[in-house]
Amino acid sequence: MQTADPLAQLRDIHLPEPAGAWPPGPGWWVLGVVLILLLAALAIWLWRRRRANAWRREALAALEQAHREWQEDGDSARFLQSTNAILKRAALRQFPNYEVARLSGDAWDAFLDRQWRKQTPEQSFTSLGLARRAYSPNPELNDAAAVMTICRAWLSQLAEAPC
Q1: What is the C-alpha to C-alpha distance for residues 141 and 138, in angstroms, rounded to an integer?
Q2: What is the pTM of this model?
Q3: How far is CA 17 from CA 22, 24, 43, 53, in A?
């Protein structure tokens, strides 16, 4: 005969160990791989975009250099010729199938105006006469700030190269 309490013979309840953070479940592995692939694709896209638009940064830097040289020596003819050459190189880069190389004078100014989407009537290449003044014997340049503004804006707004 058993007089002892049978419940006293039972062991205490033991909880299982808490789940650890490692190794993660399969869903976390998939999410990690997808994130790494997305970051790699973003890095490649940014690198290609930067490389594709290097010509724009170089053109803007050359424009700033021409402006600094004009401020130092005041040679308006050289400044206007340099500005015109910078714009021509950028246009040849951006519009290779267009007959840009043969344009000069008023036709060149008109082309620059046609390609500029944010143009206003008082601020245009035609109104500045950039191409005509660049190769005139003694060009007067009392609006270098306007020339720099319009050239910077034109270079900055050109459509970006596709990646």
Answers
A1: 10
A2: 0.71
A3: 13, 16, 42, 57
